[in-house]
Design brief:
Elements (H helix, E strand, L loop, with lengths): L1 H24 L3 E10 L3 H9 L4 H4 L3 E10 L2 E8 L2 E11 L3 E6 L7 E11 L6 E11 L2 H10 L4 H13 L7 E2 L1
Antiparallel strand pairs: 1-7, 1-8, 2-3, 3-4, 4-5, 5-6, 6-7
Helix pairs in contact: 1-4
Amino acid sequence: MLKWILIVVAVIVAIPILMAVIGLFLPKGHVATSRARFAQKPEALWAALSEFSQWPQWNPAVQSIERAPDREGKPVWVSRGKWGVMPAIVEALEPPRKMVTRIPEDANLGFSGSWTYEIAPGENGSTSTVSITERGEVANPIFRFMSRFFFDAHATSRAFLEALGSRFGESVKPERA
């Protein structure tokens, strides 16, 4: 019986060590881009994206969002959701085409990085494509292992695009870009 207990304990200890060792060899950074087509003009999409205070009304992942003091002279919004509390620094605003937000390294979330939202008008002027590019970094090697083998880097941006579609009464089909 003692032999089996020792084997179980050894396996329980070995699994996280193995995950950490494999995670050390995985890159810290990743890039994932998702996009979706909307039956909206860029200006309408821009208004929805850039009005952070309205996000909880159409995005079920965001329970609340509030303005925080500027950092480095840039606006900061702090959202609360299933992931916890996440600050985002607004790095760039180029209405109605591009917005870049950054999760600061000191947010203590286990990850950091930026999200670039780009709106491209369609040929007819009444449709648009929204692309979201996540450039993330995961410092913890165990989290890196989990991110690589158990989570989809596109899942959050896909869900965001679907929620944005629902904001306009559309059912959009996000795709990997």
